[in-house]
Amino acid sequence: MPVTDVQHDVDALTLTITAEFAAPVQRVWQVYADPRQLERVWGPPSYPATFVDHDLRPGGRMNYCMTSPEGEKFCGWWEVTSVDEPRGFTFEDGFADEEFNPLPDMPVSQNTYTFTEIDGGTRATYVGTYASADALQKVLEMGVVEGASSAINQIDDLLAS
User: Which residues form the Activator of Hsp90 ATPase homologue 1/2-like C-terminal domain (predicted)?
Assistant: First the structure.
């Protein structure tokens, strides 16, 4: 399994997930740069994602929905703040309604995704920083660790295909 470590730090308001892939950095980058590939791994396996908008550049926006096995939609948005292809990118991530309007009562995180070469493969570090301990606790209670880990663990199959 690609996920090698998960840490949440209430004092630093962060959730950090580390994963390793047996593929070069450029190949891992492509998973995020191509919306059709990203759809195959964003969200838990039983909640397929659809990216309606995908603009991976500073100032770009991404809008997506994941659909539960029962047909319920869970939507979100990204506002891309920086891109350092193929080494990573940063973005603000929030929850949205089905028209992609931000949900004001839900947490927003600042995210840094970093891809570094390690022994011919890639170490991916995913760091989400929250505005408060309550916001971090809310997403932890919602199952973000399990959901994100199961999503990231799907990347190996995509890279092998």
Answer: 23-159
